[in-house]
# Entry
Amino acid sequence: MGKFIKFNVQNSAAVSPLSPTEGILVNVEDITKVTAGGASGANAKTVVVGLTGRNSEAGYKTLTLTVSTSLSAAVNPTIVTGKANPLVVAVRSALTANPGGVVATAQLGVDQAAIPVQMYFRTATYA
# Structure
């Protein structure tokens, strides 16, 4: 298991000084839970990572990552009720991965639409 989980946040609409791809590292020991939000309907799809340790000492309890099927706009992916949530699965897979190194990357696959579309982490917010 890696010591850190890396979330590649991609947004081609980002303007300077932000870059189109930001890698966010989270210490595996600081992750308490992983949940998904907005799983049904046209709501924004999110992954919420519960934090403890150094993050909570800094005042942060969660890292919320919004997901999109577009690199330049907020386009909600299709998540089907009754199937495993691919957002949570991606993060949990990275948590249990054995990368042979220090960092494992949480990589999103495709959504669950009739014609699947690649998903991306679009924004990240600490709260």
Summary: Strands lie at 4-10, 21-27, 31-37, 45-51, 62-68, 103-105, 120-126.
